């Protein structure tokens, strides 16, 4: 090996080129680079060992060329980035020291040099699984919490529909709504041709029996989304937690109740289309007095400690359960990320880089 | 004549059949019926002489078959209904007496028997033109007031775009916004091939010099709505007062600023289409954190006196001006109503049935 014993091999997930349409595993390349485990003298940077990486739908926007300040493009030829849990190996920053556990934006690689660590959150509670900080206790958890309590303005007894309900955010929104005394229905598209038992029963099992939803359906098995929603919501929908967009949103608009609310968190069905689908039923917004409101979780990060105070007890007391879909190793990271867009994941999709 | 001298001829505007697509003058028929000017003994009804009738876009929904409780269908073979100003001729209701002036829902005819007059508003201020109670002091005025102050949550200095800006609601929203210190741009489609001077200058003249908008454009003269909005709003739009829908909404979404608001009042471009246009740019709602909220003015009617207290002084002090497009006589009422949907009106479209 080289004379400098601190230089290690560093496996990375590289974006080859900007992506158009559905991302494929082959849009990424897993290869080894090398890295020094020491932060340069006088730098404010920290060097971390990545433990868990989060696969999130918003990452699709960063795989294409764009100039959005919140969702800037990844750099082709460099490792992709995302939220993750990491351990500090070396620090030039006064607020971080070796051994600290953190979550926040990091690289899809074994070790990352983080030049501006100010945006990272330190992890103080380790009686819960560390991987939870990629999900229920991290960005998706904050998304569910802010979206449900701040944007949806929910009331006990209301009818709530959650799309992408088995994902990181959806499973939590549904459970928060049940804790509030709402009637909750979720939909998702479950893994096809992977398990042999009927798809519908798997999904209903998970959403109803594990998460406590009142009803559930697999949208891939419904020819008519409007009919599916009318079956599940004969009284209509008060709150829709929007993850899907396009045809799903159009069907939901037909089934909203007066003064309904739509928390627009994402529209995953549209991310890989060159031209987004048209939504035709927006007149319902007018005459049903619907409030449709978009939000981005970053705006709520300053409230993180308030969020932890609310959600940690739910986990510890078993009031909220949480399902993860774990891919093992960076080699499997591209497939895990790509699977989000075909609905392959059941539960929060994450990648284990290293368990410690 | 008949022995009963109180039975008079009563000219009416009859809906022949439910309408599909663009309404035509020939969908309506003006013909004479007869009416007794006495209310039956023991009835709570009132009998009114109609003075001014209001042509409003929402009436299109009532011309088709529908089961919406707020916008129920007109009855083919019977007079259409709408907001109007009327004078009480006879009353069986304790709260109304002969000679009272009222505004509210009445028939498109010379005289109407109103069986449930509770929903009518009595007119107490007659130092302003009576016709104003079909517009600035009636339903459209309340719409502009509630939509702008309650739904838009405006702040001084914000960039405001109003479509259908020369109409009853749009001209008021723009002026309210100017009074608040906002930058206001309006668009409308002005009468084509009616006046001979260039269309663009007419409209710009009206919106800028009469109503005080900062800028204006005629959407019928723009090939590229996105480009027109970028020209008028290089910094983007904070508030959009939505009257149009479809392609206009799609172009606006591309030009909204972070945390923008869309007050969804109507979508007139869509009312005559068998299948509404698709709106493709809704992902902007998510990442720009846009709130799009529909509202219906009926919900604000209980605040009518508060509204009058705010708006009457604006009129008396000349802080708000108001332009009407007046059709004379019930014979011209069908053309006036139909003209709304091709953008023929400049100013609030109304019909004079009788001036006293």
UniProtKB/TrEMBL annotation, chains A, B:
Name of the protein this chain belongs to: Enoyl reductase (ER) domain-containing protein
Species in which this protein is naturally found: Citrus sinensis
Ranges for domain Oxidoreductase N-terminal: 11-122
InterPro entries membership: ADH-like_C (IPR013149), ADH_N_2 (IPR041694), GroES-like_sf (IPR011032), MDR_fam (IPR045010), NAD(P)-bd_dom_sf (IPR036291)
Keywords: Oxidoreductase
Domain Alcohol dehydrogenase-like C-terminal intervals: 168-308
Molecular-function annotations in GO: 2-alkenal reductase [NAD(P)H] activity
A family per Pfam: ADH_N_2
């Amino acid at each position: 090996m080289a004379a400098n014993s601190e230089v290690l091999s560093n496996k990375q997930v590289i974006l080859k080129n900007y992506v158009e349409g559905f991302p494929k595993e082959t849009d990424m390349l897993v290869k080894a680079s090398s890295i020094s485990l020491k932060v340069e003298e006088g730098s404010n940077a920290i060097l971390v060992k990545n433990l868990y990486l989060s696969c999130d739908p918003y990452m699709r926007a960063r795989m294409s060329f764009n100039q959005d300040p919140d969702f800037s493009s990844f750099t082709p030829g460099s490792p992709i980035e995302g939220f993750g849990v990491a351990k500090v190996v070396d620090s030039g920053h006064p607020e971080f020291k070796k051994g600290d556990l953190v979550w926040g934006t990091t690289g899809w690689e074994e070790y990352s040099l983080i030049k501006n660590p100010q945006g990272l959150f330190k992890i103080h509670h380790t009686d819960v699984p560390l991987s939870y900080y990629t999900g229920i206790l991290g960005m998706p958890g904050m998304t569910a919490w802010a979206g449900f309590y701040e944007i949806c303005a929910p009331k006990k007894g209301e009818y709530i529909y959650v799309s992408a309900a088995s994902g990181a955010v959806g499973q939590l929104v549904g459970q928060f709504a049940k804790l509030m005394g709402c009637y909750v229905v979720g939909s998702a598209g479950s893994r096809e041709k992977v398990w042999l038992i009927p798809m519908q029963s798997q999904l209903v099992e998970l959403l109803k029996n594990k998460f406590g939803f009142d009803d559930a359906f697999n949208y891939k098995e419904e020819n008519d989304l409007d009919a599916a929603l009318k079956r599940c919501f004969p009284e209509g929908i008060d709150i829709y937690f929007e993850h899907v967009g396009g045809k799903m949103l159009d069907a939901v608009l037909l089934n909203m109740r007066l003064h309904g609310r739509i928390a627009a968190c994402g529209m995953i069905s549209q991310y890989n289309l060159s031209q987004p689908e048209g939504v035709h039923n927006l007149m319902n917004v007018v005459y049903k007095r619907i409030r449709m409101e978009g939000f981005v979780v970053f705006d709520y990060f300053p409230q993180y400690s308030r969020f932890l105070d609310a959600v940690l007890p739910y986990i510890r007391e078993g009031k909220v359960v949480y399902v993860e879909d774990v891919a093992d190793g960076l080699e499997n990271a591209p497939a895990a990320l790509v699977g989000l867009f075909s609905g392959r994941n059941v539960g929060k999709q994450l990648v284990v880089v290293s368990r410690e």
